[in-house]
Amino acid sequence: MAFKQEQEVHNQMKSTLPVNCCTPLAGARMSNEEAHSLAALFKSLSDLHRVRIVNLLATSSDPVCVCDLTAALGLGQPTVSHHLKKLMAGGLIEREQRGTWAYYSLRDDALEKLAGLVGTTRKVSA
Amino acid sequence: MAFKQEQEVHNQMKSTLPVNCCTPLAGARMSNEEAHSLAALFKSLSDLHRVRIVNLLATSSDPVCVCDLTAALGLGQPTVSHHLKKLMAGGLIEREQRGTWAYYSLRDDALEKLAGLVGTTRKVSA
DNA sequence: CTCTTGTATTGACATCCATCGATTAATGTG
DNA sequence: CACATTAATCGATGGATGTCAATACAAGAG
Fold first, then answer.
1. Global pTM?
2. Which residues in chain B are closer than 8 Å to A60, comparing Cβ atoms?
3. DSSP designation for A29
4. Å: A82 CA to C17 C1'
5. Are B85 and B9 within 8 A, CB to CB?
6. B26-77, pLDDT tens digit by residue?
7. Which of A41, A60, A87, A109 ranks highest by number of CB atoms within 10 Å?
């Protein structure tokens, strides 16, 4: 299903996700709203365990279920769900239900977009 | 002066700055320490005003003094100093003293390194 | 339907953080 | 030296955040 990504974010329109927020950091002057969204995106990665989750998902070929994450991170299950929710809100990961289990994976365009929000213009200083 | 960058960070060794922390997010599995440093780097950009500061410095050809930043951001002077300290700790900006004034500028390699910590593949959009 | 298992949500709590006022330090000037 | 100006630090405070225990929800199995 090609359009599934559009619906994976449920409540939130794809265009309002922080990962799709604005012009690059080094590009034109940003508005307050753009800066706020970009800050929210960075905030979703501002936690040790969330970075580890993204790294785990990025280096894993298949989606990973919550139970595996709790074991890998050494955290309680509610805490892991909390972090996953933050990453979902940032638009970085997606969720897939398989029976009783919930499998998470990195959105394939997430890291590209994130990198694009930072670097791009390659302003080689003055 | 070519070696000035090495000393601009005073107390902190260049290699310990979050911006020089680790392998890319999508690369190999990260250690706890690497993830911690990378999270600290993102945390330094997880605030609306700090994103605006970086954007201001990135789009400005010359260093900017604190007094200009307080005016641009609409924040008190102690608060701006607080944010600048966080960005310094992340290794993203550098400080230069000119008389009574303190001028800040983006480290020329900061955004490149930041993008490198995220993307790897360097795919220029789809 | 009942029971079990996995996940999400709620509530509480301790800690962290952004902000400002007041003060101190640094740099010049007369 | 005293004085003025700019920036950094200190202390306090209100709000945000990560964590877990307890609970509620979801999806099968019997």
1. 0.88
2. none
3. P
4. 20
5. no
6. 989 999 999 999 999 999 999 999 999 999 999 999 999 999 999 999 999 9
7. A41
A24 CA from D19 C1′ (Å): 34
Distance of CA A101 to CAs A62, A67, A80, A97, B9, Å?
14, 8, 14, 6, 48
Q: Which token pair is A107?
A: 């959105």
Q: If we measure between CA atoms, which residue out of A72, A27, A18, A70 comes closest to residue A46?
A: A18
Nucleotide nearest to B101 (CA to C1'): D6
Nearest-5° Cα angle at A68, A66 to A74: 95
Interface check for A54 against chain B (CB to CB < 8 A): the answer is: yes
pLDDT tens by residue, chain A, 126 residues: 333 333 444 456 767 899 999 989 998 999 999 999 999 999 999 999 999 999 999 999 999 999 999 999 999 999 999 999 999 999 999 999 999 999 999 999 999 999 999 976 544 433
